[in-house]
Amino acid sequence: MQTLAVKLDLDEVQALLELVDTQLFRIKYIDPKFPGHKGNPEKLVIASKAVKTLREVFNQAKGFKNRDAA
Questions:
Q1: DSSP per-residue letters across the chain
Q2: Within a domain: 2
Q3: Closest alpha carbon to 50 in 4, 15, 10, 7
Q4: Taking a C-beta distance cutoff of 8 angstroms, is the pair 51, 14 a contact?
Q5: Which residues contact 48 (CB under 8 A, 6 or more apart)?
Q6: What is the CB neighbour count within 10 angstroms for residue 33?
Q7: Is the pLDDT of residue 68 over 60?
Q8: Is 69 domain-assigned?
Q9: Structural domain tally of the chain?
Q10: What's the predicted TM-score (pTM) here?
Q11: So what's the pLDDT on residue 64?
Q12: What is the residue range of 20's domain?
């Protein structure tokens, strides 16, 4: 898998996280209720992992402790 390095300021990352959270909620809970919906669980897993990584980096940059590291 190819990786990318991107420079974003904290406000940009926060805005992206808010948008992505909304989209993931829609994909997980709302879209499956529509007739003819064809889910893509692999894409959902990949997106969820990417959001988790981005959120961890964001929280670290803001000085928040990682909840998973206990």
A1: ---------HHHHHHHHHHHHHHHHIIIIIGGGSTT----HHHHHHHHHHHHHHHHHHHHHHTPPPTT--
A2: no
A3: 4
A4: no
A5: 24
A6: 7
A7: no
A8: no
A9: 1
A10: 0.74
A11: 87
A12: 10-62
Q: Is residue 4 part of a domain?
A: no
Closest CA to 21 of 62, 57, 51, 61: 51
Q: What is d(CA 41, CA 22) in angstroms, rounded to the nearest whole number? A: 17
Q: Which two tokens stand for residue 29?
A: 């809970």
Cα–Cα distance between 32 and 37 in angstroms, integer? Answer: 6
Contact 54, 17 (CB under 8 A): yes
**Inside any domain, residue 16:** yes
pLDDT tens for 5-35 read 989 999 999 999 999 999 999 999 999 999 9
Token readout for 65 is 């402790």
Distance between alpha carbon 4 and the CA centroid of its chain, in Å?
16
